[in-house]
Amino acid sequence: MPAIEPDAIDDDVHFCAVALFASQFRMQVIMTEHSLWRFSRALQRAINERQFEDIEAVIDEDVDWAIYGPIEMFPFFGARRGRVAVIDVIRQIADHVRVRRFERESVLLGADSAASMLRFSLTVHGSNKPISLRVAHFAQFKAGRLLSIKVVVDTFDLVEQVIGQPIHLPRMTSYA
Amino acid sequence: MPAIEPDAIDDDVHFCAVALFASQFRMQVIMTEHSLWRFSRALQRAINERQFEDIEAVIDEDVDWAIYGPIEMFPFFGARRGRVAVIDVIRQIADHVRVRRFERESVLLGADSAASMLRFSLTVHGSNKPISLRVAHFAQFKAGRLLSIKVVVDTFDLVEQVIGQPIHLPRMTSYA
Q1: Distance of CA B133 to the CA centre of its chain
Q2: Which of B73, B127, B134 sits opposite A176 (nearest CB)?
Q3: What is the pLDDT along chain A (176 residues), one digit of tens a residue?
Q4: What is the rounded CA–CA span in Å between residue B61 and residue B58?
Q5: B59-68 and B145-153: which strand pairing?
Q6: B68·A134 Cβ contact <8 A
Q7: Contact between A136 and B136 (Cβ < 8 Å)
Q8: How far apart are CA A7 and CA A12, in angstroms?
Q9: For an interface test with A, which of B156, B158, B160, B165 has the most A Cβ atoms less than 10 Å from its Cβ?
Q10: Distance (Å, whole) CA B154 – CA A66
Q11: Is A64 strand, coil or helix?
Q12: What CA–CA distance (Å, rounded) separates A42 from A46?
């Protein structure tokens, strides 16, 4: 039997470590649901059923929140900081709209981050006016809770749908 | 020397395969730049220097392209299909604006996909009017070439900046 060379031991240890890492990684992928899905369900429940317990549980106390758009028309757009302010703004959204359905057109997941592009079908409370909305969001999570989210909306399309008529626009070249 | 058991061989083969995979994966991470960075540099060069060779080389022949927004004002918004149509629309963008700088606020990379949220500082040709633009994109690549990209822009903010005055908006509640 040949003597065991130190290099061979190192290789074995390395192989074991890699195999263990691969196995643990696979287990984690199988067993842990991404924070995005839990947050998404809780947000929908908050907006449509006015149930805020689930969403409170998945929002970090120091959350950073922003939906970019004209706040004079949509007071629930803009930046918010902290769980209390964010729950308050979600209540305001729930006061105005209901989510009929949404389609996730693209999604990218990191370990503690997520980005998706979605199309929402909403109705405005009172008028039952249907609104179709394209949204892109980038979210970061910490220990399963939302730490930061930034939302970009095709706001011109949204404004036109809410006022119910097209806004006349000249071609950009008129301003060049 | 004990007889080698079949299970032990399988384990060794498995360990070798995992180690080889891990090693190849690491090498690929070290050696291969993500397609997003090459595409991003080529796009900037096309818009600012009107050099279209680099961008042609990183766009798939059957590319799917969409920038959502009001096409009556911005004729280079909307959907395009195929490399020729996409190069043509990039030429139109280059005819209208120059990228002064951009900041990538968030980025998520998959193996053949990427999403980012960016803030662009642009100037409009002719007037030299500065425009600040928030953009989210989702891109897919195949063999290093752009296969699909969807871009969401905060379009209302963009329209107001280009016309150079605020559009009066009522609060959404007026329409409920």
Answers
A1: 15
A2: B127
A3: 444 444 444 555 555 555 556 655 555 555 679 999 999 999 999 999 999 999 999 999 999 999 999 999 999 999 999 999 999 999 999 999 999 999 999 999 999 999 999 999 999 998 889 999 999 999 999 999 999 999 999 999 999 999 999 999 988 875 54
A4: 10
A5: parallel
A6: yes
A7: yes
A8: 9
A9: B156
A10: 13
A11: strand
A12: 6
The answer as to whether B85 is a domain residue is yes
Locate B63 and state its tokens: 């590319």
The structure's pTM equals: 0.82
CA within 13 Å, CB half, A148: 7
Quote the tokens at residue B170.
């009522």
> Residue B104 is encoded by which pair of tokens?
């990538």
Tell me, yes or no, whether B124 lies in a domain: yes
* Contact call for residues A146 and A137 (beta carbons, < 8 A): no
Of all residues in chain B, the one with the smallest CA distance to A134 is B152
Q: Which residues pair with B90 in a beta bridge?
A: none
Contact A18 B14 (CB under 8 A): no
Structural domain of residue B62, as residue ranges? 37-163
Min Cα separation B42/chain A (Å): 23
- Residue A93, strand partner residues: none
Structurally, chain A folds into a number of domains equal to 1
Smallest CA–CA distance from B164 into chain A, residue: A175
Q: Domain holding B80: CATH number?
A: 3.10.450.50
Q: State ipTM.
A: 0.81
Is B157 in Cβ contact with A138 (below 8 Å)?
no
Query: Do the Cβ atoms of A137 and A116 come closer than 8 Å?
Result: yes
Instruction: Look at residue B60 and tell me if it is in a domain.
Output: yes
| Domain annotation covers residue B99 | yes
- Among the partner-chain residues A70, A134, A171, the one whose CB lies closest to the CB of B156 is A70
Contact A169, A157 (CB under 8 A): no
